[in-house]
């Protein structure tokens, strides 16, 4: 009788990991872009500071109060914050670090609730916010010549975006020492005038000095914008309220998804670690060999 042959079946061990690869690499890819973007924004702000010797004049800017209205400072702070959050999300998801993922989700939650609280307070205290914004904008007008970045930002708002001049009207530029009529004593050519960014486009292309002398009592103002930027900004938001709301909702949804993905990945990692602990426990080893 021929010997019976026994069929050998090899059992292949399946990978029963709790960690979702889709969420892991989706978190990694999104946050590495966020990380690089934060680094670039911070680098732009630091480069702007180096170009205008902010580090050498840091004490003077701090005492004068103009540092807080420096657009480069906003770039640096936002860039560093984005860099830290992107680093935590990128490395936390790739290395499966629960501490970094917890920091990432906590930071996003804090940002979300700050935005929600800020929007609610702005809606409730509209008049107070408007008055405070007017004060801060007047300080920016007074510091127009003190910071090149601030000057470029105001010029862009007046000429390109809102087509306005001053805060409430063009006569707000009298509060700036360079454009005040009293500067005639020192021979300032800009005295009793407004910046060139207040000029209407059709006049600005032909005459870069079309804003000179427009603060004179008898001056003709048809060549400049006379309406202030604050009322023009209110009108712009009223016209684009739907677009602003859609963009805000998109950002909110992305933040909520980021929090959910980070917490889901963190829970999967903790579940996988608990499984490793269960298999390597001494009592379980003794139980398996009985």
What does the average pLDDT come to? 82
C-alpha Rg (nearest Å): 30 Å
Residue share in β-strands: under 5%
Helical content stands at 55-70%
Order of helices and strands: HHHHHHHHHH
CATH architecture title of the largest domain: Orthogonal Bundle
CATH H-tier superfamily of the largest domain: Tetraspanin
Low-confidence blocks of residues: 7-14, 286-290
Describe the 3D structure.
The protein is mainly alpha-helical and 290 residues long. It has ten helices and no strands. The protein has helices at 21-51, 58-64, 71-94, 98-124, 126-142, 148-161, 201-204, 229-239, 241-280, 282-288. Helix 1 (21-51) runs antiparallel to helix 3. The model is unreliable at 7-14 and 286-290 (pLDDT under 50).
Ordered list of secondary-structure elements with their pairings:
Blueprint: H1 21-51, H2 58-64, H3 71-94, H4 98-124, H5 126-142, H6 148-161, H7 201-204, H8 229-239, H9 241-280, H10 282-288
Helix pairs in contact: 1-3, 3-4, 4-9
Features:
Cd81 Antigen, Extracellular Domain, Chain: A; disulfide bond; mainly alpha; transmembrane; Tetraspanin/Peripherin; 2 domains; 290 residues; Tetraspanin_EC2_sf; disordered C terminus
Summarize the structure.
It is built from 10 helices and no strands. It has helices spanning 21-51, 58-64, 71-94, 98-124, 126-142, 148-161, 201-204, 229-239, 241-280, 282-288.
């Amino acid at each position: 009788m021929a010997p019976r042959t026994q069929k050998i079946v090899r059992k292949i061990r399946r990978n029963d990991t709790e960690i979702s690869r889709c969420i892991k690499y989706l978190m990694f890819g999104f946050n590495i872009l966020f990380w690089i973007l934060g680094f670039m924004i911070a680098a732009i702000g630091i480069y702007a500071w180096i170009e205008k010797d902010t580090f050498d004049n840091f004490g003077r800017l701090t005492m004068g109060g103009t540092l807080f209205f420096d657009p480069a400072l906003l770039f640096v702070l936002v860039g560093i914050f984005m860099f830290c959050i992107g680093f935590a999300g990128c490395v936390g998801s790739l290395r499966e670090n629960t501490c970094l993922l917890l920091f990432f989700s906590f930071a996003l939650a804090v940002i979300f609730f700050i935005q929600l609280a800020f929007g609610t307070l702005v809606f409730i205290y509209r008049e107070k916010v408007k008055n405070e914004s007017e004060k801060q904008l007047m300080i920016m007008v007074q510091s127009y010549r003190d910071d090149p970045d601030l000057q470029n930002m105001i010029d862009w708002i007046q000429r390109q975006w809102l087509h306005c001049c001053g805060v409430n009207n063009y006569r707000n530029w009298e509060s700036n020492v360079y454009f005040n009529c009293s500067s005639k004593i020192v021979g300032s050519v800009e005295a009793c005038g407004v910046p060139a960014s207040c000029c209407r486009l059709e006049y600005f292309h032909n005459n870069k000095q079309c804003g000179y002398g427009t603060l004179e009592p008898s001056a003709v103002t048809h060549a400049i914008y006379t309406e202030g930027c604050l009322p023009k900004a209110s009108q712009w938001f009223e016209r684009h309220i739907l677009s602003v709301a859609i963009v805000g909702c998109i950002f909110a949804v992305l933040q909520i998804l980021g929090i959910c993905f980070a917490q889901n990945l963190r829970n999967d990692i903790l579940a996988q670690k608990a499984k490793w602990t269960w298999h390597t426990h001494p009592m379980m080893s003794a139980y398996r060999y009985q």
